[in-house]
Amino acid sequence: MMRAAIVNRPLDATALLAEVASDAHGATTLFVGTVRNVNSGRAVSGIEYSAYDAMATVELQRILDETALRFTDVSVVVEHRVGTLALQEASVIIATAHAHRAPALDAQRYVIEELKKRVPVWKREHYTDGTREWVGAAS
Amino acid sequence: MMRAAIVNRPLDATALLAEVASDAHGATTLFVGTVRNVNSGRAVSGIEYSAYDAMATVELQRILDETALRFTDVSVVVEHRVGTLALQEASVIIATAHAHRAPALDAQRYVIEELKKRVPVWKREHYTDGTREWVGAAS
Amino acid sequence: MLLFASYADALGASEIVLDVPEGTTVRDLVTAVRARAPHAALPPQPLVAVNQAYAGPDDVLTLGDEVALIPPVAGG
Amino acid sequence: MLLFASYADALGASEIVLDVPEGTTVRDLVTAVRARAPHAALPPQPLVAVNQAYAGPDDVLTLGDEVALIPPVAGG
Predict the structure, then answer these.
(1) Smallest Cα–Cα separation from A86: which of A13, A2, A10, A17?
(2) What's this model's pTM, rounded to 2 decimal places?
(3) Is the residue at A62 inside a domain?
(4) Quick check: B50 and D54 CB within 8 A?
(5) Which residues does chain B have within 8 Å of residue A38's beta carbon, measured at their own beta carbons?
(6) Shortest Cα–Cα distance, B14 to chain A (Å)
(7) Which among A100, D26, D53, D15 has a CA at the least distance from the CA of B120?
């Protein structure tokens, strides 16, 4: 089970856990990225995520292909949400599962680290003072 | 939020995720250990978990204390189930959360590795051929 | 050429059309974008994707390629 | 002394009472267990917990201590 998607609806951790479930697995992991209330000392009220949808989906799929090669028989499902998210809402969820815990955990780490580096998704933070700013952009 | 327990009821991943949730967190992880259908080449039908309950709770708490020192401001909830579990049922769930992903992931790894080494819990596998065997015991 | 996020804001469009000669490289294209929008604050070597994959500065563009200028990614 | 899992099976009880003199160490106690159950297959240095914490072989026991013989753990 390997699936990647960019979606514009709320993410469902329980559904992703169920998707990787199998009685051949002994270990399942979840990584959930959520909108937090502060960044670089500024009070955040929400984050607007946007993506180069077509490429983001393809790049996520490339990451899953690499993950499958590195961790034989691992299952991974990853969804990244776009749109405007409130505090505590999930922007990304990665579920991994494997017979053993080391590959399940290593795959989880690999996917989130590569996603952060390569997947064309951007965020514009909305601050409680009414201003907005692209995160990570040269400005 | 730091909590550890040995319980004899089904584990609830959603409840543990909710327990560590906070809008100060940007990253949440879950580790779920489940009963798988094969071990060392033998077909497993279920696993009977038992614990030295009082010490297991204390040892889990010690691990959480160490985790709190290593990863400042991390939240961790861990529950280990005892009793007889069917295939795919969860024996252990660890939820961690932190402002940033690295400490959330590192804490997850630390807790499961230490739990495996130190927490006095034992399992007797039940095989589809009707036999049972303690796992890891000198025999 | 597709533009996203801070680059779309900086260039005031989510897509721009550039007339480039045959044999144009990714590097040439970035130079053309700078010429067209001299006040847009682009980094020294902005990331470029060609047909939804990251491209190097010496990669040569072909008619019909889907080209995109990729701001620093910030997913997760 | 509390016994669990495979050790409880091997010694046929979940708790055994051993009469030991003052100054008895964890090592002495393990020797006493072996003497009492010579056919139980214990490893060379079984883990022992005293008052719900792992103890070393030279730790000295005190009246009222909760002592347990800990089989190889297999949680998770």
Answers:
(1) A10
(2) 0.96
(3) yes
(4) no
(5) 24
(6) 7
(7) D53
Q: What is the mean pLDDT of residues B104-113?
A: 98
Per the listing, tokens 């997850």 go with: B108
Pair A7, B81: CB distance under 8 Å: no
Mutation for A interface: B12, B14, B23, most A CBs within 10 A: B23
CA distances D21 to A64, B77, B106, D15, D66, Å, are 63, 43, 46, 19, 16
**Confidence band (pLDDT; 50, 70, 90) for B60?**
very high
Q: Enumerate residues 6+ apart whose C-beta is below 8 A from B132.
A: B48, B124, B125, B126
* Predicted confidence (pLDDT) at residue C59 exceeds the cutoff of 70: yes
Residue holding tokens 């590569």? Answer: A114
D 24-63 near B (Cβ less than 8 A): 41-43, 49, 52-54
Which residues touch B135 (CB under 8 Å, ≥6 apart)?
A: B39, B47, B122, B123, B124, B125, D74
Nearest to B116 among D5, D41, D75 (CB): D75
Q: Is residue B138 part of a domain?
A: no
pLDDT (tens digit per residue) in C17-50: 998 899 999 999 999 999 998 888 899 899 999 9
Residue B62 lies in a domain: yes
Fold that domain D2-70 belongs to in CATH:
Ubiquitin-like (UB roll) (3.10.20)
Judge if ipTM > 0.90. Answer: yes
**Does any CB of chain B come closer than 8 Å to the CB of residue D6?**
yes
Residue of B54, B80, B134 lying closest to D5 (CB–CB):
B134
Residues of C in contact with A115 (CB under 8 A): 75-76
Task: Specify if B135 maps to a domain.
Answer: no
**Measured between alpha carbons, how far is A58 from A41 in angstroms, rounded to an integer?**
34
* pLDDT score of B137: 58
